[in-house]
From TrEMBL:
The organism's taxonomic lineage, starting at the top: Eukaryota, Fungi, Dikarya, Basidiomycota, Agaricomycotina
Protein name as annotated: Elf1-domain-containing protein
Organism listed in the record: Pluteus cervinus
Amino acid sequence: MGKRKKATRKPAPSRQKVPLDTTFTCLFCHHDKSVTVRMDRKGGVATLVCRVCDQRYQSKANHLTEPIDIYSEWIDAADAAQRDDGPRRPSTSRMIPVAPDSDVE
């Protein structure tokens, strides 16, 4: 009897790590790649700055935080601020019925 041949496997396709963006579009001036995020992991602070309109945002950061996370937080904070600054409406609207004016022809 002869030796059995080992089944040969094709090597798994290598998964290339796609780097995440580190520069982003500004929400306020709409310039592409003008927003950068600086991470100070030891200090636990991340700073986002637009180099065109000088908009700034600062947030907490840890060892798992990435620049895209800070950019997403900035978008959420800007949306929340915009909702708070909008025109204020009464929480309950009450319609007061008005009787038709009989003098008007």
